[in-house]
Amino acid sequence: MERIPEVEVIGEVADARQFNEFMGNNRFRREGYQQLARQAVAMGIPRCGKALDMGTGPGFVAIEVAKLLKGTEWQVVGMDMSLAMLGLAAENAAKAGLNGSLTWREGDVKAMPFADGEFDLIISNDSLHHWENPRAVFDEIARVLKADGKCIVHDSKRLQHWWPWMFVKIISLSIPIDFRVHWWNSIRSSYTVDELREILQQSRLQNWQVKEDFMDLTVVKEKVQ
Ligand SMILES: C[S@@+](CC[C@H](N)C(=O)[O-])C[C@H]1O[C@@H](n2cnc3c(N)ncnc32)[C@H](O)[C@@H]1O
Predict the structure, then answer these.
(1) 30-61, pLDDT tens digit by residue?
(2) 84 CA to middle of ligand 1, Å?
(3) Tally of domains within the chain
């Protein structure tokens, strides 16, 4: 199946609100955010440092990371090109009592407003399939990540066979129609593991691995550059 790209930024207030409502109230999604945050922190990070959530949207993953690192000297930054999303992220952080330990930055992941080697940990969830130029983004990750920094980029993968699609269509019956279509479009605009490996090989990021499961793929960089 050919890749059908989605728009890069979720910039409209109504779209951002709808995303926030649905994802924030969905138990399975919330568990997914918590699991990714736990996986990132368990990769072995220093006692203090700086973490970045790229394409943070309403900040769900950044907030889960900040909860895990509460009481430490870690700083967590959530970045997105959508001001509508960042407004919701700040609201969500305030509701979780976490505004002090989180910073929200507007910016493009293709050209990040950060210094070389600024981050110890970089995370991203469900944003890769939106990026117009993923190779440029992985170059940027290589630049802003410390040499011994850790990175985890998680996304859906483009399903190539009828049986996982059948599974998606059946599960979709339990979610509102708007979100059903949104989910299918995300899958259609995602990468296959082979496509992602090719992009990573052309980028400046080193020591990466691509892991996959039934529906998703994850780029992990644990070793020193
Ligand atoms: C599907 S949402 C995922 C949000 C969040 N990570 C989550 O898991 O709930 C994708 C987000 O990536 C952001 N995004 C896409 N391309 C971007 C870019 N080039 N720079 C910054 N943010 C970007 C979008 O604006 C959107 O908020």
Answers:
(1) 999 999 999 999 998 888 999 999 999 999 99
(2) 11
(3) 1
Query: Does residue 6 sit within a domain?
Result: no
Ligand 1 neighbours by CB, cut-off 6 Å: 8-10, 23, 55-57, 60-61, 80-82, 85, 108-110, 125-127, 130-131
For β-strands 50-54 and 119-125, DSSP reports them as parallel
pLDDT digits (tens, 9 = 90+) for 63-84: 999 999 998 999 999 999 999 9
- Gap from CA of 81 to ligand 1 centroid (Å): 7
Q: Whose CA is nearest to atom 20 of ligand 1?
A: 108
96 alpha carbon, distance to own chain's centre: 20
Segments forming the whole domain that contains residue 205: 13-221
The answer for residues whose C-beta is within 8 angstroms of residue 195's C-beta and 6 or more apart is 3, 158
The CA 34 to ligand 1 mean position distance, Å, reads 18
Please state, in angstroms and rounded to a whole number, the distance separating the CA atoms of residues 120 and 134: 21
Asked, for residue 1, whether it belongs to a domain, the answer is no
**What is the pTM assigned to this prediction?**
0.96
Query: What CATH number does residue 155 fall under?
Result: 3.40.50.150
Reduce the secondary structure of 101-133 to three states and give it as a string: HEEEEECECCECCCCCCCEEEEEEECCHHHCCC
Does a structural domain hold residue 2?
no
Specify if 71 maps to a domain. Answer: yes
To test the pocket of ligand 1, the residue of 28, 130, 185 to mutate (highest count of ligand atoms within 8 Å of its CB) is 130
Please state the atom number of ligand 1 nearest to the C-alpha of residue 16: 27
